[in-house]
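User: Run a structure prediction on this.
Assistant: Running it now.
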Amino acid sequence: MLGLLGGWIALGLALDLGAYALQRRYLAQAVADAKARADGCQRAWQRLVERVGDAVLAVLAVVLVGAGGLAAGTPSAWQAVSYLALMIILDQTLRALLSVATRAPAGMRAAFIAQFKRVAQPLALGLVLWGVYGAVPSGWGAEFWPLAWAGSWLVLAGAWRVYRGRSKARPLLGRPLGDGPLQARLHALARTCGRPQCAITVADEPPLATQVGARVEAAGRGGQIVLTQALVARLTPSAVVAVVAHEFGHACLGHLWRFDVMRALLVALYIFGLATAVLAIDPQVFAPALLWLIYVTLAPVAWVVRPALNGYRRGCEFAADAFAARHVGPSLLADTLADLFSVNPHRAGLHPWYCRLNATHPPDQARLERLRMPPESDCSF
């Protein structure tokens, strides 16, 4: 079973390497702008390095679980603590080393802290699931553990999502929008969209402030839309309203929570499938080792569903564009997007297969063409 898992991970890594090679060749042939070509290659390389890190760590975890004897038998408490500490150290070290290829040295400390949080949060979740394992009556047998883990994961994920949506708003990212007339227009748009409590802020701290973009968050009552300082400085007030209308589209159409539900269900399915397969081979598997293996291998084995998830997200972008077009008009939105796309020319150079595998946004030209498409004429007589 562990050998099949390692082979599946290796197959996904080979697919990512092939997609990266296609993307580099496509950029060299199809993109004339040297800056856009270099930017596109750098972004593709960053994505590949992240995938390589996930895959190498996952294969290493598979080897350690098998060779360390933790896939069978019950080790002592000292062995268990040592094993989990070793896995955390390997995770931290590998990701810190790989981040050298994508980050400047000045950002290494922040990158290390971010990776620590990435490990600590799922580890806390694993401890909760381990508690479920200990609470299962011995008479149930090991065959019930995967179902209990998967069900517990869905309950925990749902509770966390409800908490983020219903709790008091966390400290807002950025500062409130200071422009009086623009602020009034955005508040009017929020009321029209049914989101009067949504906070609209401007991120003015680097590195986010220097980027030209916006995003929507579901945390807190009403959510939050974060604009960057560079975006507000570049766009006209009407164009800013168009961007915010697009972000409201994501929130009002339920894209955030639907994607969360999809991911939670996929994680639960993977927990159930892998735990069932491993426990069928040996019911004496050490529970923390199995939970850690599930976490570490989750991202690299998900390559098979990545195109479907990214396809859903690209569809969400088209839907948010249509939502915004109904509120601000398709012409204004198309002109605004065209201006923003010119700031990020690397987005125009995506190989079709690379786009299907990795792109969360549709090609820029496709979005513009859909917005500028003339409405269907009434042909009735």
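DSSP finds 14 helices and four strands in the chain.
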